[in-house]
């Protein structure tokens, strides 16, 4: 079993930065890829960024590319999402997800069913 707990969300103004953290506990050795999803009110959950087990491959949604950076520290069992130049449209609940299987392509990262574990989410609100 794996428990994921997000932190670092908050209320910021457009142009500000935030760093989200997701701490994993339990059977963390079983975790392969990890990702950050977000869900805004009335919208579908979407994949923002993903990272493979070793941290050598990353995936970003076009809407955040160049502004967000995903990274992981396996020694600390933690994945991060550095968010710069935040925009009001980034406002959402951000959720951490962990998979038990290898992500073979971009579609696998984007698919919700690829992930076995989910955190409860942390709210990010960006005011204009």
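^ Assign residues to that structure.
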């Amino acid at each position: 079993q794996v428990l994921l707990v997000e932190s670092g969300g908050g209320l910021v103004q457009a142009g500000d930065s935030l760093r989200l953290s997701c701490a994993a506990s339990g059977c963390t050795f079983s975790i392969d890829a990890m990702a950050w999803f977000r869900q805004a009110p009335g919208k579908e959950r979407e994949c923002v960024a993903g990272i493979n087990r070793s941290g050598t491959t990353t995936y970003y949604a076009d809407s955040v590319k160049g502004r967000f950076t995903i990274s992981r520290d396996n020694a600390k069992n933690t994945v991060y999402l550095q968010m710069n130049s935040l925009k009001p449209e980034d406002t959402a609940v951000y959720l951490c997800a962990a998979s038990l299987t290898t992500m073979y392509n971009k579609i696998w990262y984007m698919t919700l069913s690829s992930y076995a574990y989910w955190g409860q989410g942390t709210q990010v609100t960006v005011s204009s």
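The first strand starts at residue 2 and ends at 7.
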